[in-house]
Amino acid sequence: MDRILSGTPQHSNGALTIVALATEADVPRNALTQRHLDLKNEFYAKVKERGQPTDVELRLRKQVVKLKTLRQKDQAELTALRQDVEALVRVVNQLTTENRRYRQQLTAPDNVVRLLPTQPQPPAP
User: Fold this and answer.
1) How many contiguous H segments (helices) and E segments (strands) does the chain have?
2) Which of 6, 79, 107, 119 has the fewest beta carbons closer than 10 A?
């Protein structure tokens, strides 16, 4: 408990939580939440007395804010990319349809070039 409160944890992330305390003490979490309620209450009382978070907790909170912002930006980018994919799929479908139509026109039998008659030539002497 003292290591976490002093900001020098050895086995946990240093957060002021029962989970971190249990990890630091190398005991299961339910040992503190169910069997040793006195230790849990003492820990929370000491945390409340401090009134201010540790440096580790401040650093982690800043990192959480940074990661949430990054996640929002990634989500916005992902939404834009999904919309782009939908638009590109429509364009590919349109181009495929046009390409198919042009290929059919090229192979159609009415696509024969007819020669126009020329002016009659006098017979050769």
Assistant:
1) 5, 0
2) 119
The one-digit pLDDT tens for each residue of the chain (125 residues) are 888 888 788 888 877 888 888 988 888 888 888 888 888 889 888 888 877 776 777 888 899 999 999 999 999 999 999 999 999 999 999 999 999 999 988 887 776 667 777 877 777 77
Global pTM reads: 0.43
Q: Is 35 left (phi over 0), alpha (psi -120 to 50) or beta?
A: alpha
Residue with tokens 């349109």: 94
Cα Rg, the chain, nearest whole Å = 38
- Domain ranges for the chain, please list them: 1-52, 53-106
In the structure encoding, which two tokens stand for residue 65, read together?
Answer: 């804010």
